[in-house]
Design a protein that fits this description.
Transcription Regulator spoIIAA; 5-stranded mixed beta sheet; 4 helices
Length: about 120
């Protein structure tokens, strides 16, 4: 469901399978724990996420709000077409920095200006 890798200057989170009402609590708790360790910048790899529900979208919103409150940055990358469609239909694609490749997402979160 969630794989975490601490990288140089950011944390890579890989969401696998489904992000829904059942899995969102684990993801949110894990994110709070990582944030408490002092990390501020996050890249979330969604290349292996097959489904996201409205509860999953709320979890994503929770993560971006928490990262911004910590003066950090969060980027999403490699969304599958079905997941991208849900982000587009819900207008969440206007809230998140979304990139096609990992390198662009990493460059965004590590940029001093966020872009």
């Amino acid at each position: 469901m969630l794989q975490v890798e601490v990288c140089d200057g950011y944390v890579l989170l890989k969401l696998v399978g489904r992000l829904d009402g059942v899995t969102m609590e684990v993801v949110e708790r894990s994110f709070v724990d990582i944030l408490a360790d002092g990390y501020r910048h996050y890249v979330i790899d969604l290349s292996q996420l097959d489904y996201i529900s409205s509860a999953g979208l709320r979890a994503m919103l929770f993560m971006i709000k928490k990262s911004k409150a910590a003066d950090g940055r969060l980027a999403l990358c490699q969304l599958k077409p079905a997941v991208q469609e849900i982000f587009d239909l819900s207008a969440f694609s206007t809230i998140f920095a979304i990139f096609n490749c990992m390198d662009e997402a990493v460059a965004y979160v590590l940029s001093p200006t966020g872009g």
